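seq/struct pair 1
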Amino acid sequence: MELTEKTFGQWLDKWADETPENYFLVYSDRGLRFTYSEFKNRVDTFAKGLLAIGVGKGDKVGIWARNIPDWITMMFATARIGAVYVTINTNYKLSELEYLVKNADVHTLCIVDGHRDSDYIGMVYELIPELKTMERGYMRSERFPELRNIVYMGQEKQRGMYSTPELYSLGYYTDYSVLCEAKKNVDCHDIAMMLYTSGTTGFSKGVLLTHHNILNNGLTVGECMGYTNDDKVLTPVPMFHCFGCVLSLCAVITHGSSMVMLEEFDPMKVLASIHKERCTAVYGVPTMFIAELNHPMFDMFDLSSLRTGIMAGSLCPIETMKEVMDRMNCRDIIIVYGLTETSPGMTATRVTDSPEIRATTVGRALPFVEVKVIDPVTGEECPRNMQGELCCRGYNVMKGYYKNPEATQAVLYDDGFLRSGDLGVMDEDGYVRVTGRIKEMLIRGGENIYPREIENFIYQIPQVEDVQVAGIPSPKYGEEVAAYIKVKSGMKLSEEEVREFCRGKIARFKIPKYIFKVDAYPMTASGKIQKYKLKDIGMKILEEKGIKIV
């Protein structure tokens, strides 16, 4: 295998020429299907539409939408003409949208009507009230000086906004030679996407990723799973996150496979889509797989077509991995570890790895990527089996954070290695175990405690469906260990039973002082658990019980 020098457009052209009747994109729940040939034609029309409204090379096109078909179409259309696709978290509210549109210098913003309890149209009009009095194509905003267009991705007309049919019509009547000229100026090392870090620990930063970064990540990850153009990859994860738009979409396009999409995650629709489309691969974060495995109608669906997939996005419970391999037939499921700044994969297990390795490690370095473990204080490389900070170097490392050289320099060193902020160990064979986040480490009375170790231990209790460990302030020890446990449906589990299970098996200072039963965890839209919010939940529960921590 060699790294690819192709752009998004060139990969699409390849499969539209070689396998034009193969399906590229399928929405099983609504019977919508695009062959590679059909999708290419749609992308080219939208690309010409973007050119017609003044979008050029390097301009930022923001996308604020669920996993609708036009999300993917617009991603290829922007890449086709050298624009930069800026993904926006569907859970953002007014202030977060304002921050991102300003920070990213968005030129054209594409939106849907809304998401859950958020009215996107209303928020855009609140931020840009003058939009209601301006002619499309002549928009000017004092608050957002770079913003020129709003595109409503729907059939209805909204004042001051282009609609999707209008954009398509503009593209239809734009001469193809205009697109050909734009395509000539696109290089694989151009920035293709700007993804904002999920913000679990603070202000989001715009991560600059090239065609070369993300297409090669998709290519190498797809090779780890043995993808061919016969594979059908079910994608229920949000596209605004690297998991969806790289590990799924880029793996599919570099192998000529089919992408079976869900607009939003629903465990029932995941199981039904696998059953109906005979999917060979399924993606998800651990919480998604847990929901699927525990769905009351799980046994009604035929999942025998499944072969592989990816569990990523957060650290994987060992028992969940084993259940997915056995009950969901994903014998060749792999773990991919990384972060947005590494496009995102830096390590992965392989289908040839034993089930034990796939259940207990995040694999070894992906092809063409170097991974090492360093002492986070001295920067020196750690011996094998010693815990330190995971770092990587290779084609996958971001170009930097947009307009933030200080933050870039803090994580990206002169030697090309990027510091992940994650703790881990590497064994003699190069297999990596992630032990936690540096910022998530608890310090109780001078003892360093890594939540992942305790979580893996508590997962062995049969009644536990999921568990997260975080710190609670302590005037005596600085922090105390708190476990937030979801109990399996129909089962009971007392605090004392948890402590009794731990006694004599893990160090006393690691045994949770506080045990909270919860129904759900605070999550980002991409499925990552926001651990920094768990402390507040625990403090509120203690306060309600009349327990005060001074």
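seq/struct pair 2
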Amino acid sequence: MNNRLKEIFTFSDEFPLIFTQADFWIFFTVIYLIFAVIYRKIKLRNVYLLIVSLFFYYKTSGLFVGLLIFTTISNFLLGAGISKAGSKAVKLLLVSLSVALNLFILSYFKYAYFFVDSVNYLFGTDYQVSHWLAEMGNRVQSVNYFSVDKIILPIGISFYLFQTITYCVDIYRGKLEPLKSIFDFGLFVTFFPQLVAGPIVRAGDFIPQIHRPTVISVQDFNSGTFLILKGLIKKMIFADYLAMHFMDKVFDAPGMFSGFTNIMALIGYSLQIYGDFSGYTDIAIGLALLMGFRLPVNFNSPYKARNTSDFWRRWHISLSSFLKDFLYIPLGGNRKATPATILITLLIVVGVLLAFKSVAAILIIIPIVFLFLLIAIDFEKPRKHFVTNINIMLTMLIGGLWHGASWKFVIWGGLNGIGILVYKYWRRISPWEQSENRLAVMWKIMLTFTFITFTRIYFRGESMEHISVWYRQIATNMDWGNALKVLDQYRLVFIVMLLGYITHWLPVRAKEGIENLWAGSPLALKAGFAVITGVICYQAYSATFQPFIYFQF
């Protein structure tokens, strides 16, 4: 037993603490028992949860916990400086420094190879990425402690950096008073349930909870345990089981499977990524409730969306909200084009021209750009449309790039942006826009789901080469004659997939009924169901380590 606990509470890069491992639940049981003793003392509770959260991140990411501590301290000091600054210019300087520092750290660890590879392709250069931070650390240590071969992306870096940005920006905007205790701020940044994969928590939503006494009602306990079990089912059955037994095989070698099989794998992937990510956030929200904290809802049945705009109001809600408030609106939103809008647009146009490396493309694209500019200058109404549409597209392109340092993610973001713009104008002429007819609603939902699913080939495809093979198989090798054989060969996979989509599309009232049934059940029945659920999940689970998809972001 002592050796087992030692394994759980010491770092191993092969076995990080994640919600789907038994080690995490042993870890959580131990820290929760201590929490139950000290939770009434608010300051002690906050310091304790901060220590636990830092240890959790250490178990997940090793020495990258040092980077987390650095960003926490630096943004705490910058937030205090913004509040105390006597002039608006100094406040602006400090908030700009906070944003620049966070984006620099994110760019270094996440986008170094993307930027260098893009420059090399556009200009025919041969620059190489140098891991100078690791090299500097080795010189300080006088020993080769850090690997300099490759820059490794710290788990969850985007999530906690975005949270520190919201803190400093909200202080600058006058929406938030800075925290006096660095321990309280550290808890906001590092709170372990949502630290590595969100949801992104706004400072204004979480910080007031830090100072409140812990209150865990019977309803909180019921909702928390229900969310945890629901999240485990989503992740381990509807995500990992399907991926291990079907999707991973197809996407690793799309040319070995028919077009029909590739399409079914992509439909399965839509369920997988939803089960994986929403499963994580369900567990995170449930764990937080058991400790008296409330995290924002991050998903709202996204595959019930009737259009692309509705989808992005239901999917990864905390990120969509962040991009709207901290990117789309600062770019000018639907009001104007800011210098940032013009600069980013020009960079994209120049990049596209350089990427084509074709005189014909330049002769086509430049006149089109000038034509749009002339119309925008001379006519106010078209100008407003252009500005709004450009800001929407920039937001979606940058949102795509946030999801992955690759052009395929930029394409994915761009396709979603196009989908939003097409719907924006289609709804003005659609005779079914206001219709609540059941068939019309089902048609809109399925059309939206189909579009969202097919854009995900750029999200899931291993490379652009794999994506092109996927398209080729669909265009030339659907092999309808063997479709029934595929369904029969993977019948258990497709049964699980069907169950996953049925549960997702259940009416809200039915889902609420299931949760109410859980809440009204005796404790012994809850415990029995939890044990049965755990056994089923782990029977379906792969022995191979399956990280959450959004850890890479």
